[in-house]
Amino acid sequence: MTNRMHIVSDKGYHPVTRWLHAGLVLGVMFQLIGALLMAHPDHADTGRNGLVMNHEAVAAEVAHSEHEANELGKFFMSAHRTGGTVVAAIVLVNLIWAVVLRGAPRKRQMSVLGSSRHWHEALSIAKNIPSMLLGRIPLPEPGNSLSLVFEMLGLLTMTTMAVSGTVIWMLWDGPGNTVSAMAETLMGVHASVAVILLLYLVGHVSMALMHAKAGDPVFNRILPKRKRSTAAQGDKL
Fold first, then answer.
1. Residue 235 CA to chain centroid, in angstroms?
2. Which domains does the chain have, with CATH numbers?
3. What phi and psi values does residue 153 have, to the nearest 5 degrees?
4. Burial level of 167, CB count in 10 A (0-12/13-18/19+)?
């Protein structure tokens, strides 16, 4: 049996959904790449949370941070901060769109995470992924429970990244400055969630490519600019 979809629809997502999706993809990719190039702080508690280090230790830590924070690293640090603000705004709009404005219960929205039916169906589909990869059974139809749950979990992951990053910037003054113990803890959380987000992106793109190979015009449905020949078929939420 080949990985051919039973029902292939070229009906595009709502324009708001498509543009928000594009913004998230580009923004998150920029943030992940920038995180590898930016200047990273050395960790030391400066007393912001009530614990004061030895003054000589703090001075040495700051000097080392200033040395490591080269101009290119500072640039990407600033870009990461600005990019994080933009991505946080997109995530906020996406959350509002997902929770409030998407209409019918069957559409993609945050409520699927509280649905035992969606979770049961998602787990059933997940168990069959190896067989799908081997081409033994067809891929599930678009809008299945696994894709809905996976999308909303990804959105929550991005929200965690945005919130933790915002709090870190409130606690840390940037390159050349040491960080408090709380900021250091949040940086650890931020980095761990970034790994989860990277795995999510890999899985998300991999499944999209599998659907495209099986004949599902998934990219034409989700890209902001669709092919003229299919655009007239209408959009869905």
1. 24
2. 12-226 (1.20.950)
3. -65, -40
4. middle
